[in-house]
Amino acid sequence: MATDALTSGLISSESQAGNGHASLADVARLAGVSAQTVSRVVNRKNNVAEPTLTRVREALDALSFQPNRIARSLVLNRSESIGVINLGIPMNVSLGQSQFGIGQSAESAGIATIFATVLEPETGHASEDAVARAFASTAWSAR
Question: What is the pLDDT of residue 59?
Fold first, then answer.
């Protein structure tokens, strides 16, 4: 169905050729609804009639739609991600298991993880400046 929709002009060539992902507008065009209606379905709002909900879900499936996490985080002003900073502790089995567990738990909740090790090459220790830089680079995640 997605290939048929592309060749019939229901899917914009820009979104398919540009990044290979369908946009809300592409799904809306295929389902015959507005992009706002698609957004309501994607965000699980209850104000969509059942026949429309079915059409939109079929279009989402047909186009293998995946929400854009970056766009979503900008609109919601939160990233649904967490940052974990290792203060220069050498990697060991226990730390690796902890990071794996954090990553698995976060993923099952739909949360992305960012892992960073803070270590000054000159000293081999974490400095206040290095920690500040690590937090600054992931500060958008804390919103």
Answer: 95
Whole-angstrom distance, CA of residue 17 vs CA of residue 14: 5
Position 104 scores a pLDDT of 93
Q: Which element (helix H / strand E) includes 85?
A: strand 81-86
d(Cα 25, Cα 30) in Å, to the nearest integer?
9
3 state SS of 112:
strand
For the chain, the structural domain boundaries read 2-67, 75-142
pLDDT tens, position by position, 99-123? 899 999 998 988 888 887 777 666 6
Q: What is the mean pLDDT of the chain?
A: 76
Q: How far is CA 25 from CA 42, 109, 132, in A?
A: 13, 27, 40
Which phi and psi (to 5°) does residue 104 adopt?
-65, -45
Cross-strand pairs, 115: 84
Residues 2-67, CATH architecture: Orthogonal Bundle (1.10)
Q: CA–CA separation, 139 vs 50, rounded Å?
A: 40
